[in-house]
Design goal:
With 112 residues, the chain is mostly beta strands. It contains no helices and seven strands.
Length: 112
């Protein structure tokens, strides 16, 4: 995965109710973050990655999943940090289960 982040801005002109935490049976509640109304990606090397991303109904790893018209997704994903021996998180922009761009961060919302 390539480190990156594109010009990503939160559209504050749209309004959306905060996402509610989802609970799995037999598990403790997962901390979640309210989803921005939308995200805009511009200047990506891959044209399909550009565009308006709206929140989907899905939450993964305590964070909202966003999708654009080209069926690209922005989602928070785990990976193993072999140097520290722990699981770390990052945001991935991908399509058809193939990462196009990624950035490592433990934040529950995509970087801007």
């Amino acid at each position: 995965l390539k480190p990156f982040w594109l010009e990503l801005e939160h559209l504050r002109s749209l309004h959306r109710a905060p996402c509610l935490p989802r609970l799995a049976v037999g598990m403790a509640p997962v901390e979640t973050a309210p989803a921005p109304a939308a995200l805009v990606v511009t200047g990506a090397g891959s044209g399909e990655a550009n565009g308006l991303y709206l929140p989907t109904e899905r939450m993964v790893f305590g964070a909202p999943v966003f999708e654009n018209d080209e069926r690209c997704l922005i989602s928070r994903e785990p990976h193993n940090d072999k140097n520290k021996g722990e699981i770390r998180y990052g945001w991935v922009l991908g399509r058809h289960r193939r990462a196009l761009y990624a950035v490592q961060t433990d934040e529950l919302l995509p970087p801007s």
